[in-house]
Amino acid sequence: MELKPLPLHHNIMQSAPPPLPPAAHIHRYHPFHMAFYWGKEAQFLFPGWPDNKPGMYAVSLVFVFALAIFAEFLSNLNLVKPGSNRAAAVFFPAGFHAVRAGFSYLVMLAVMSYNGGVFIAAVLGHAIGYVLFGSGLRKGSKPN
Fold it and tell me: What is the band of 52 on the pLDDT scale with cuts at 50, 70, 90?
């Protein structure tokens, strides 16, 4: 194959780049699904995680479950007491709300992997978190 020079700016000549070698059976894992699926072949929150290993998949389900419980804990936590400084009563809850929203969005992003196990772990985590922290069951008071 003959390489022909290519004209560049101000009559500078350069040869064409060599042709690319033929693709030799490149197998790529496409972790993006458009419908719910079941199995350990999931990737969510971080690249290469849980790495298609059953043990790591189980750890990741526990992580999503605990993250959902923690998000419910944060959403039912009242840190500002009556009579607090007005600035603290406005800005501290706003910052705390941003942290809580961040944890909730992490759970949402995990669910967006469309893995059925991750979805169930997140829903159960939110449900148990609500029973523990939002229902008033622990304090004997009525729910909000």
Answer: confident
